[in-house]
Design brief:
five-stranded mixed β-sheet; 12% strand; alpha+beta; elongated; single chain; binds FE2/S2 (inorganic) cluster; 165 residues; 2 domains; Glutaredoxin; 51% helix
């Protein structure tokens, strides 16, 4: 992560006092997260220094909110719906498949950096196709652990084929 860019992103956030600094931490983290897809420890340090607050305070907020990531995403990003309908239709088995076959949990990335999977507890709005995942604005529904694993395998293969070409 280019820390000079981080400094530029937050350059106009200049708190007048400690209270205002606390309020600006989230804005700063949002800007960095939007730009890079995550906020590194080093970036959290830059934010803390710029706003005149502490790294533990910044890092506490960074790790509290699910929207923020502290590590880079994989080349592909997938949402796995864990809303009520998907849960009833077996989304937990898909989560388990990720754990068993790839050793990753919520927000985890496959070993080669191909795919990050985020589990979402809110409904993705296509319950009739539960359990479902979304990637690149496409939905893949009525998944079983086997078809889900096939999908993950395809994504990994496609990313690696793209990287090799
Ligand atoms: S609960 Fe998953 S799409 Fe509605």
């Amino acid at each position: 992560m280019d820390l000079a860019v981080v400094k530029e992103l937050i350059a106009d956030l200049n708190p007048q006092d400690w209270q205002e600094a606390q309020e600006l931490i989230l804005a700063a983290l949002q800007r960095v997260n939007e730009r890079f897809g995550y906020v590194s420890v080093e970036a959290a340090q830059v934010v803390a220094d710029h706003l005149g607050t502490t790294v533990p305070r910044v890092y506490g907020l960074l790790t509290f909110y699910a929207d923020f990531r502290t590590e880079p995403r994989g080349k592909k990003f997938m949402l796995l719906c864990h809303g009520m309908s998907c849960y009833v239709m077996g989304s937990q088995k898909l989560v388990q498949t990720l754990q068993d076959n790839y050793g990753i949990g919520d927000g985890g990335t496959t070993a080669g950096g191909e795919l990050t999977v985020q589990v979402v507890n809110g409904c993705l709005g296509v319950c009739d196709r539960a359990p479902i995942v979304e990637m690149d604005h496409e939905y893949y529904g009525k998944l079983t652990p086997e078809t889900f694993n096939d999908l993950v395998q395809r994504v990994i293969a496609q990313v690696n084929a793209g990287a090799a070409s």
